[in-house]
Amino acid sequence: MTGQVVAPLNRKHIITSISIAVAAIAFIGILTYGLTLDQSKVPAANINKTANAFTVSWVQGNEHLPSAAGETFNLENFKGRPLVLNFWASWCVACREEAVELEKFWLKHNSAVAVVGIAIQDDKESAKKFAAYFGKTYILGLDVDGKAAIDYGVSGVPETFLIDRNGIIRHKEIGPVTAKMLADHLEKIL
Predict the structure, then answer these.
(1) Does a structural domain hold residue 48?
(2) What is the pLDDT of residues 68-94, one digit of tens each?
(3) 31 lies in the same domain as 63
């Protein structure tokens, strides 16, 4: 028999099978693309927006901020000065990686920019011990109630915000920073 005719039921089965195969390939392609994206490079919603006010308890560095009196300091104390704002915790492994780098950056650039570390989900004694162990000399605070971290949209530590002298967030880094990385972005806030 030459010229065999495909029954309508078989034709529907073939079309359905091809449609399912195309949909599966598209789905796998989308998943594969999503897995290649660097989640730490997702742009922050607060870039180029005014930094949120914060008030935190002192851990150390009072001598670097004579305008702050009392048990706390806040964003207003840095008005007119560029700021590197780092959220960290003493229990954070990645924060250990960046502790020396932040100090190195601070020592080199402290005349041009303030460096502030805010410990979250932590206690004052653990934060002080961590700072002493890693030789931190810049300003450190403690976000006792978690409000500062929430207001900045911090989803984990470490996270670092670069804020210009007008109080505008110009850059955000998720994960540990290096002195070189901060220096490379410094022109954004000067």
Answers:
(1) no
(2) 889 999 999 999 999 999 999 999 999
(3) no
